[in-house]
Structure formats: structure tokens, C-alpha cells
């Protein structure tokens, strides 16, 4: 992955992760390691370019050039730049939960409030270290093919948090809890975005406010 234009303090942390993103974003899964390496390079290149020029100016041609692959290789696995961005968003979600699970395993939170603080802290870490993350911010649709609803990164995060609440704290899921956690996730995402609009490294007061707002909201609704 080219990191020449990414400041040292924001070097990517996802390169060793052998995730390709959501399978629905790939035209086909790479079978051989050589093909898998090409897909990883394309996603890394897309991350760098989104960081540098934004999503609107991103092109598959630029991705191919940065990844040092033929343009045909891009279309072999991805239909367009949107599917690349979707796969990158899913890879970031995978990495986010890998980091969060490792954090919980190393220092289990005493209660769900501690879990919220850890979840927001890891989300902030992604903003600071993963190229393109603050541009994608996982808010756009990552599964537009679903007939019943449009799934966003926030929805995927909420689903995994619900599973974690059941596993770690014995809090069972129902429709009302699903709605509550989804609102909490979307609120937390919005407040973290605000923190990074106020300060490129993340306004500490705004991040603290994100923790407070989300915890206060959940405290009024969790059993």
C-alpha cells in the first residue's frame, strides 16, 4: 500500500487483515493468493485515494494505477468504484470489531457503559488511523441489493453490537432494543464526525460529549 501521502500519525492499521469486504461487493471471490493480494492492493489504493481526493473524484482508473494492476483486474472483481467503496467500508467494519473484541478480551468492561466508551474510543481510533475512513464514515449504503431495506454501515455495526450485548452482558434483543441500539450507533457516529470537523485529530470535548449522550440515551432505554 502506498503511504507516501498519508501523515505518519495516520498510517493505516488494516493492511495485514486478510478481509476483502462484503462478498456482495465482489463480482467473484479471489481463489489464489496472488489474486487475493491484488484485491487487497486495490482496496488499499482506494483507501489512499479517497483520503487524498475524496470519493467524488475517485476513479477506477486511478485505483488501478495506484495498485499497479491492469484496469481489467479492477473490473474482474468490482463492478464500479461504488462496489469498491462498499467493500472497503465492510473491511473497516471487520477491522473495527476485531480491534474491539481484542480490547474487550484484554480488559473486559465492567458494564455496558464501559463497553460504549470502548466502542467509541475504537471508532475514534479508526478515524485517526485508517485512510479514507472519515470520508466513508460507514454511513452510506453498503448493501443496496437488498429488496426490503437499504443497509448502512451503521446498521451492520448495530447488528454486531446487539450480538455482543447478548453474549457479554446477557441483554436480549427485540425490535425495540434493535431500534434503540441503531439510534445510539447513528448518534455516536454523527457526534464523532462532528468532533473531527472541529479538530482534525478529534475534539476531545466533543468525543466526551458523544460518550455522555449515547450512555444517557441507552440508560433510559436498556433493561
UniProtKB/TrEMBL annotation:
SUPFAM superfamilies assigned: Homeodomain-like
Keywords: DNA-binding, Transcription, Transcription regulation
Keyword check for Cell membrane: no
Keyword Translocase on entry: no
Coiled-coil spans in chain: none
Matching Pfam families: TetR_C_22 (PF17928), TetR_N (PF00440)
HTH tetR-type domain: residues covered: 36-96
Ranges annotated as DNA-binding: 59-78
Entry-linked PANTHER family: HTH-TYPE TRANSCRIPTIONAL REGULATOR BETI, HTH-TYPE TRANSCRIPTIONAL REGULATOR RUTR
Record protein name field: TetR/AcrR family transcriptional regulator
